[in-house]
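Researcher: Next entry in the queue.
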Amino acid sequence: MTASYAKTSADFPNRAKQISHIANLARHLLEPIFVYNALKTARKVLGDGMPMNDEAQQWESRTAQVLKEAVEAADRLRTRDGVTTPHKYVGSLQDAVKRCQ
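Model: Structure for this entry, 101 residues:
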């Protein structure tokens, strides 16, 4: 999935394919958003008593990084030939990640 973050508008033959890719990216990010939120909430509630605390912290950090990169990629892919297309999925992704933090 991370390979799709590196794509640029030149990787798509037209705007429709590019916008479709953003929608697919957003759908694939639902699960990591849920995992990130669950880990963050569990660490807040359980504190030092959280089982496998070190591993959970590593997963939380990695998931946060993946989400950050994906949201930046989706936002970047909204632009083609200097024209930025509004896309509700991108706004929803940004909002969901922001709410988890």
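Model: Helices lie at 15-28, 30-46, 53-77, 88-100.
Researcher: Noted, moving on.
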